[in-house]
Amino acid sequence: MTEGKKKLTLLEASCIVAGLGVGGGIMAVPYLASLNGIIPVILIMLGAYGISLILHCMIAEIVLRDGRENQLVEIFSKYLFREGKGGMIFSWAFFILIVINFLALLAAYLVGCGEILINLFEIPLWLAEVLTFVVAAGVVFFGLKALGLSEKYAVACIAAVLLFLSLLSFGKPFNPIPLFSAIGKSTLAFYGMVMFCFVGFFSIPQTVEGLSWNKKLVPWAVVIGIGINFTFTFVTTVMAMLVSKEVTEVVIVGWGKALGPWAFYLGSLFVLLAILTSYWSVSYALAIVLVERLKWGYRASWLASTLPTLILALSGIAGFLGLLRMAGGAIAILVAIMVIPTLRAIRKRGGETVFDMGIWGSTAFQILIVLAYILAAAGSMVPIK
C-alpha cells in the first residue's frame, strides 16, 4: 500500500476514532441510562467525555512521540516490557489478552447486528450474522483508505437518521423521567458502559498514520471523533428515554416502536450502520496488531481478525449486552494499567514532538485517569438484572 493511499482527511480520521465506539454506545447506553435519573445521566456522560478526551489525547502524545506509527501493543512492549524473558512473557501475554478481547467485542457487534436483522426480515439468526459478517469484514479487506471513506459516509448517514428521528420524536408525548435516583449498582453499570462507548484508543495509531501529511491535526481528530461519539450517544439516550414505552437493550426496538413501524425500519438502519463503524475500526486495528506482532501479511491478518468473530457469534456463547460489557471491562482495566506508565516512560526519553498535553497530562490527571478507568472496569462487572 503506497503512502498516498494511506492518507486520510481530517474528517475521515475523526470518523475512524468515532467509529470504534459509536456502535456499542448507541446500542447499550440508553437501557442502562433508563435505570437512573436524568441529572446523574447528564453529569456522568459529561464527566466520561472529559476523562475519555484526556486519555485519548495522552495516547496521541504517546504515538506521536514514538514516531513509528506502531499499534499500542508494540508501543507498550517497547516501553514497558523491555527486560529479558520476563518482559517478553508479559509482552506476549498482553498481546493475547488484546486479541481475545477484540474477538469478543467483534462477536458482540455481529450478535447485535443479527438481532436487528431478524426483527426486520424474520430470517434465522445464523443467516443474519453471516450477512453482517460479509459486509463488515468486506470493507476492512481493502485497507485504511477504504476504512476512512466508509466510516465518513456511515457517520454522515447516522447523523442524518438520528436528526430525523429526534425531530419526529418531538411530535410524541414525552415520558416523565425522574431528575435524581439513588446512587447504586445501576449508576455504576451506566458509568462503565458510557466510558466504554467513548473508547477509540486503538484507532489513534491509524489516525496518526492517515494524517502523516500533517500530524498537528491528530489532536483535532481525537477531539472531533470523541465529540461525535458523545453527541450520538447523548441524543440517542435522551430521546429514547423520553419517547420509548420501554427502553430496550437494543435501543431502537423500543424507540422505533414508539414512533411507528416505518421509523423502526429507519432506526434499524441507523443502528446497523453504527455497529458496522465499530466493527470496521476494531477489526482493522486487530489486523494491524497481528501484522506487527506476527509479521503476517495484511490479508492473512485480516482473515484471522474477522473469521473467528463469526464463529464466536454463531456459537451463541452470550447475548449482545453480555459480550459488550465483558469486553468493555477488559479494555478499561488494560488502559488503566498500561497507558500512564507508557506516557511517563516515553517522556523520560525526551526528544521533540508535535503535540504535548501540558498541564492536562500532569501527574494529577494521570492519577485521575487510572482511578476513573478502574471504576469503569468495576462498573462493567456489576450485575444489572
Can you tell me about this structure?
There is one protein chain. This protein is mainly alpha-helical and 385 residues long. It has a single domain, classed as Amino acid/polyamine transporter I (Up-down Bundle), CATH 1.20.1740. It is 78% helix and 0% strand. The protein has 15 helices and no strands. Helix 3 (38-66) crosses helix 15, helix 4 (72-80) packs across helix 14 and helix 6 runs antiparallel to helix 13 (298-315). The longest helix has 38 residues, at 84-121. The protein is globular and about 60 Å long.
Assembly level = single chain
CATH homologous superfamily - what is it?
A: Amino acid/polyamine transporter I
SS-based structural class?
mainly alpha
- The overall average pLDDT, rounded, is 84
Question: Compute the gyration radius: what is it?
Answer: 20 Å
Q: What's the CATH C level?
A: Mainly Alpha
The description of the largest β-sheet is: none
The assigned CATH architecture is Up-down Bundle
CATH topology: Amino acid/polyamine transporter I
The count of domains is 1
Question: What percent of the residues sit in helical stretches (DSSP H or I)?
Answer: over 70%
Q: What's the SSE pattern? A: HHHHHHHHHHHHHHH
Low-confidence stretches: 1-5
Task: Characterize the overall form.
Answer: globular
How many DSSP H or I helices? 15
Q: How many E strands?
A: 0
Rounded to the nearest angstrom, the distance between the terminal CA atoms is: 48 Å
How much of the sequence lies in strands comes to under 5%
